Amino acid sequence: MKKLRIPLSTSFGSALALAMVAAAPATYALAPAPAVAQSAADLDRAVEALRGISTMKANFTQTDRQGRTIGGVLTLKRPGKIRFEYEKSANMLVVSNGSSLYLVDYEVDQVQRWPISNSPLGALLDPSRDVKRYGKLVSSGNANVVAVEVRDPKRPEFGVITLIFTRDASAPGGLQLTNWVALDSQNNRTTVRLSNQRYGVSVADSAFTFRDPRRSSRRPG
Which CATH number describes the domain made up of 12-204? Predict the structure, then answer.
């Protein structure tokens, strides 16, 4: 298995691909796909499913367009907080504290920051905002799968995120968020798969803080 190494010079769209909630297998053919009956109400159900998640923990596997894969643990707390704790070999972290998204690279002691407001990421992490402003249903080719494509046509640099849900009565809103496929403005594709989702778990706000390597690197030896 090839290990994923993410350059710090990544664009906002690339970071969004890493940290969208915020999720089914990349083998789903989103277009073209056989015609499948799908209700327009499914978009409302997807919105309800996202807004129904107060907290969540899950294992994740992230794969880039070259087949390089890395795993870790995802922690989500609404509104606006998410943390991707990568396996130790990555020596990096992606975290949002509710207002900003950070890509922390401990290998080179650097941090990149982007605001999440007024972006598709902000819409998906904040249940007070309308996901339908950015999202539309796309055919998944499977009646048990609901796929929502999210993009801001006024901000193409944010890229495109396709969230994928499977119907599951035990999940919030009756839809289980299982994976997403992200395409950044440079057409770099990233797939994130979730497993072992646990909802309503206790999560402290301190989970969405991080040790700033820029400060520690300035300390005298």
Answer: 2.50.20.10
Closest alpha carbon to 11 in 214, 184, 190, 187: 184
Domain residues of the chain, as ranges?
Answer: 12-204
- Two structure tokens written together for 145: 């799968």
**Is the alpha carbon torsion for 90, 13, 97, 78 positive or negative?**
negative
Q: Looking at the chain, list the stretches that DSSP marks H as alpha helix, in order from N- to C-terminal side.
A: 12-19, 41-51, 120-125, 213-216
Distance CA 157, CA 128 (A): 24
pLDDT band per the 50, 70, 90 thresholds, residue 51: confident
Q: Which residue has the higher pLDDT, 58 or 28?
A: 58
Q: What local confidence, expressed as pLDDT, does residue 200 receive?
A: 93
The set of residues, in sequence order, having a beta carbon less than 8 Å from that of 135 and lying 6+ positions away, is: 43, 46, 47, 123, 148, 149, 150, 163
DSSP class per residue in 41-105: HHHHHHHHHHHT-SEEEEEEEEEETT--EEEEEEEEETTTEEEEEE-GGG-EEEEEESSEEEEEE
In this structure, what token pair is assigned to residue 81? 């907080």
pLDDT digits (tens, 9 = 90+) for 82-99: 999 999 888 889 999 988
Q: Which amino acid is at 62?
A: Q
Q: Are 68 and 3 in contact (CB under 8 A)?
A: yes
Nearest to 8 by CA among 132, 146, 121, 105: 105
In whole angstroms, what is the distance from residue 36 CA to residue 61 CA? Answer: 28
Structure tokens that stand for 85 in this block: 């704790």
